[in-house]
Design brief:
CATH superfamily of the largest domain: Enolpyruvate transferase domain
Low-confidence stretches: none
CATH architecture of the largest domain: Alpha-beta prism
Bound molecules: uridine-diphosphate-N-acetylglucosamine
Structural class: alpha/beta
Number of strands: 24
Strand content: 15-25%
Distance between the termini: 7 Å
CATH class of the largest domain: Alpha Beta
Helix content: 25-40%
Shape: globular
Mean pLDDT: 96
Strand order of the largest sheet: 22-23-1-24
Length: 419
């Protein structure tokens, strides 16, 4: 199994280019099921989850041309697609369940594996399913599969999500684009990645309008248009590089981003004393002599993202005082803490709150990654630890970060992938 070897203590400086967002690419790819017209999607991040979604679409019959060099995908659904999404493609990637809405809306039937278990919490899909039932679907769970049918098609209606869910919002937005009549969605997630999906859907001819911050009006359509779309940048990757630079006292230009859509993250980093110069398409992070402690609560957008919680925790081990993180989105997202403790971090957990003691020296160690963002946290810790750190099970990291070791190496890190 591949692992990363990191020798800590090198400054992360220079320039890094942020890739397209995985969390935007996945729902956009799933939504192409709706249309038989050609779609072109650009700024695709070369990460494992995207490859898995491409495999899933190919297995159900989409014609896909993936130009990796240009980071561009062309999709053309020439024939009727299969309506069966098998377990082996959903066991590693929850977002596979996003094919349920479009398949059901288009063909009136779908059999989609329940997504695999996940280290960060139970992560059910009940909100997705209840909303589809409200739109007229009959749903059964059998042998690990969601078996859904809507013989007369899905019917537009008013749905108020009981809880803010990124995936459920996306699944139902996509389904509503092909449902009969009007759908009103209330209490939606409006992460930049959800907004990017909506922009794409509008380009292919869907009638969608944001009405207020968390509500959407959608009118089902019958015909779509060919379209081209460039995926929004990955704000979590950008945040990870901010931490890498700040931890190592570097000066880093982070390119291909729009700081305006990551204000919560940037404000928190500034509160910690980081100097961040904001320009239209890039930011420059430079080190501050003292990193200040801070208290953070993760929340749905526009709050501080749960996906950056593990990474900022590493920076907190270097702060001047005690910091806290309250994890409000997932119930078990502190899996990285035992590994950080093995490096010497002093972190206490009480319920969903972690208390992180600053001014701590991290020592290199052999570590095991447990999930995607936890892996990034361990790599960051390795960058600032004494001596050598080995991070095992980096297949988690490869699910969502495009060649992170190459990008870090270019910025001065001593890091190597061992095969
Ligand atoms: C997406 C992101 C993930 C991010 C998360 C929260 C993608 C591919 N993944 O995941 O990186 O960490 O948003 O920002 O975009 N829930 C239910 N029932 C449901 C659905 C969700 O109880 O049917 C719960 C979840 O267990 C969790 C919370 O709602 O506690 C938020 O989850 P959700 O926003 O749905 O996350 P994902 O879409 O899976």
């Amino acid at each position: 199994m591949e692992k990363l070897k990191i020798t800590g203590g090198k400054k992360i400086s220079g320039t890094v280019e942020v890739s397209g967002s995985k969390n935007s690419t996945l729902p956009i790819l799933a939504s192409t099921i709706l249309t038989n017209k050609k779609t072109v999607i650009k700024n695709i991040p070369l990460v494992r989850d995207v490859k898995t979604m491409i495999d899933l679409l190919s297995v159900i019959g989409s014609s896909i041309k993936f130009n990796k060099k240009e980071k561009k995908i062309e999709i053309f659904n020439k024939k009727k697609l299969k309506t069966f999404a098998p377990y082996y493609l959903l066991k590693t990637m929850r977002a596979g369940v996003l094919v349920l809405g479009p398949l059901l809306a288009k063909y009136g039937v779908a059999k989609v594996s329940l997504p695999g278990g996940c280290a960060i919490g139970t992560r059910p899909v009940d909100i997705h399913l209840k909303a589809l039932e409200k739109m007229g679907a009959k749903i059964k769970i059998k042998n690990g599969y969601i078996i859904a049918s809507a013989k007369k098609g899905l019917i537009g209606c008013k749905i108020k999500f009981p809880k803010i869910s990124v995936g459920a919002t996306e699944n139902i937005i996509i389904a509503a684009c092909l449902a009969k009549g009007k759908t009103k969605l209330i209490n939606c997630a409006y992460e930049p990645e959800v907004k990017d999906l909506v922009e794409f859907l509008k380009k292919i001819g869907c009638k969608i309008k944001w009405v207020g911050l968390r509500s959407l009006d959608i009118e089902g359509v019958k015909k779509f248009k060919a379209a081209s779309h460039e995926v929004v940048f990955d704000r979590i990757e950008a945040g990870t590089f901010i931490v890498a630079s700040a931890l190592t006292n570097g000066k880093l230009k982070i390119k291909n981003i729009n700081h305006k859509i990551m204000s919560a993250e940037i404000n928190s980093f500034k509160e910690m004393g980081l100097k961040i110069l904001k320009k239209r398409k890039y930011i420059v992070v430079s080190h501050s002599k003292k990193i200040k402690s801070i208290n953070i609560s993760t929340k749905p957008y526009p709050g501080f993202p749960t996906d950056l919680q593990a990474q900022i925790m590493v920076l907190m081990t270097k702060a001047n005082g005690v910091s806290t993180i309250k994890e409000n989105v997932f119930e078990n997202r502190f899996m990285h803490i035992p590994e950080l403790r093995r490096m010497g971090a002093e972190i206490e957990i009480k319920g969903n709150t972690a208390k992180i003691f600053g001014n701590v020296k991290l020592n290199g160690a052999e570590l095991t990654a447990t999930d995607l963002r936890a892996s990034a946290c361990l790599v960051l810790a390795g960058l600032v630890a004494t001596k050598k750190t080995i991070v095992h099970r980096i297949y988690h990291l490869d699910r969502g970060y495009e060649e992170i070791e190459k990008k870090l190496f270019k910025c001065g890190a001593k890091i190597k992938r061992l095969r």
